[in-house]
Amino acid sequence: MPTGYVLGVNIGFHDSSAALLRDGALCALIEQERLSRRKHAVGQPPAQAVAACLAHEGIGPQDLDAVAIGWDFRALPLGRNKRFSPEGLRAMLFPDAEGLEMPPVRWIPHHVAHAASAYYSAGVPDAAVLVIDGAGESQATSIGSALDGEISILREWPVTQSLGFFYNAAAEWAGLGYWGTGKLMGLAAYGRPGPGMPLRAEQGGYELLHDEAAKKVGVRNSAAGPLLAYYPMVAEAVKPAFARVFPFAEREGEEPIAYADFAASVQQALEEAVLELAAELRRRVDSPVLTLSGGVAMNCTMVGRLVRSGLYDSIYVPPVPTDAGVSLGAALVVAREGERFEPTLIDHAYWGQDVTPASTDAAVAEAGLFAKRLELPELAAFVAGRIAAGDVVAWARGRGEIGQRALGTRSILADPRDRRNLERLNVIKGREMWRPVAPSILAEHAGTLIEGPLMDPSRFMLAAAPVRREAWTSVPAVTHVDGSARPQTVHRATNPAYWALIERFRQATGVPAVVNTSFNLAGEPIVNSAADAVSTFLRGKELDLLVLGESVVVRSEGDLP
Q: Hey, which of 250, 329, 469, 495 has its CA 20 to 30 A from 265?
């Protein structure tokens, strides 16, 4: 008898994850990196994430109606790998269930899964659909429509035209590494954009201009080559163009700030291309709503420009638009075929694992720390006072966020009124000094700090916006060099504890925001468990205070409230 449970997984090359739905409603979404503690979970199957999702509901793999995979490898040489046979998938996803008859497996095209993760989560009947990432099975960009529950892809751009790979290659050129795209975006604010980028917006979309020699290689390899060959192919195709604009060579020993103009030029080229894609969609799809997904949707500067463009009345980006989100999208596609389909309107990101009182007590005792449990009003008042007095507070409370943004359940918090906190936080986390941090702002007071429209992406810290000129001196720690910020709007209904903390800070200081950066150290995923939080607190020696679940945790007993 059907149970209504569908498990979605991403078993791609990075950001593996699992999502569990019942009748289309989201029960849990867990990223493998949070459990394995290997950032982006490169090359790791999501076995631990799968087990955690099933444990959340108290079910086993035999209770699943289907397993939905956010890729369709069947048309690729990769699909002949024995790892993707029923027994191979069983061993990959359910390693402790030897002899299990694998539930029915559904292979969902990658960009369809991306599109579904956004559309079915947005709570709208119709939308224009835009997916931009590094690579799907053979495409890198897709535009489409979602009407009355049906997703249709209208046009695709091949992997040789990958905007994600273009931006990745630029991050490597600037010496920031393949995973340094967020750093490149932050660096762009320090520079002045110029011409010469091998990316051109044009009527109906864009064109990525390849070096002629590399272009021939790309054409030969793109049709059926392995996915892992796509990125080097595109990167080598655009590097000659990078070499023709400042600073002429890949960065090695220079300071990153020397590449600020280069970063600004790359960022501007990306924004112009995406704006033209959005405009083309507006012409082709009669909907005032845009849903955006794929890894490039993490570029909050670009998303902010889309929000301010006026092209759409509403823009929705899910909290996990990266490949980790295709577990959700694939599961939603399959769940829609069931007898009941009641998808969750995802207006918050708190779908991970919880910090329980038992796990808090165990982690604190093992570390030899001191803790005191407080009721929420007293906890919020105490922590707000400590932040206002200059302390840096680690905050791990409730179910963890999904996605790459800390949104008030696994965060490090500080006073936005003190510009020195930007440097302090970057030192604690081992980050470059020029990288910005973000504000969490009470939603009902956002207009006092932020200028212009704020749409759903601000719930998930996914759209940059201008800080009001008169507020620059009020929140200097979160105002970037170009006068922008990457705000998270905090809503009382979706995170009452975090809202209460910021409200008490507002009452004490007049500022309705705190600094919020992710609770992790350099090179590590965001903390997940109570044990992760305690370990990171101990190693982040300049962290003054830890809030763990309902408890205040300190190094010295005399610091307890």
A: 469
Residue tagged 């620059």 (tokens): 472
**CB contact at 8 A, 396 and 360:** no
| pLDDT value for 444 | 98
CA nearest neighbour of 340 among 23, 123, 25:
23
Exposed (0-12), middle (13-18) or buried (19+): which is 39, by Cβ within 10 Å? middle
Judge contact between 349 and 132, C-beta under 8 A: no
The question of whether 14 is a catalytic residue gets the answer: yes
pLDDT tens, residue by residue, 252-299 = 888 999 999 999 999 999 999 999 999 999 999 999 999 999 999 999
At residue 211, the pLDDT reads 67
- Which residue in the block uniquely carries the two structure tokens 């569908």? 6
The architecture (CATH level 2) of 160-317 comes to: 2-Layer Sandwich (3.30)
The dihedral built from the CA positions of residue 194, 197, 201 and 202, taken in this order, carries a sign that is: positive
What is the DSSP track for 61-88? GGG-SEEEES--GGGSGGGGSGGGSHHH
At residue 196, what are phi and psi to the nearest 5 degrees? 105, -5
Q: Over the chain, what is the mean pLDDT? A: 94
User: Contact, 114 vs 294, CB < 8 A?
Assistant: yes
Question: What is 357-559's CATH number, 3.30.2130.30, 3.90.870.20, 3.30.499.10, 3.30.465.10?
Answer: 3.90.870.20
Give the tokens for residue 285.
């799809």
Residues 6+ apart with CB under 8 A from 84: 73, 78
Strand order in the sheet with 150-158: 150-158, 139-147, 126-132, 289-293, 314-316
E strands, 2-149, are 5-10, 17-22, 25-31, 66-69, 105-107, 126-132, 139-147
Q: How many helices (H) and strands (E) does the chain have?
A: 16, 22
Which run of H or E residues covers position 498? helix 496-509
DSSP 89: H
pLDDT (0 to 100) of residue 247: 72
> Looking at the domain that runs over 5-111+324-335, which CATH code has it been given?
3.30.420.40
Q: Is 510 exposed, middle or buried (0-12, 13-18, 19+ CB in 10 A)?
A: exposed
* Rounded CA separation 126/161 (Å): 28
**CA-CA distance, 143 to 485, in Å (whole number)?**
29
Q: Domain-by-domain residue ranges, the chain?
A: 5-111+324-335, 160-317, 357-559
- Find residue 66's DSSP bridge partners: 6
Which residue has 């209504």 as its token pair?
A: 4
Confidence at residue 254, expressed as pLDDT on a 0 to 100 scale: 85
pLDDT at 121 over 60: yes
Query: How many Å apart are CA 460 and CA 347, to the nearest integer?
Result: 9
Average pLDDT over residues 75-95: 86
pLDDT at site 410: 98
Given 14, 56, 111, 210, which residue is catalytic?
14
Same fold: 160-317 with 357-559: no
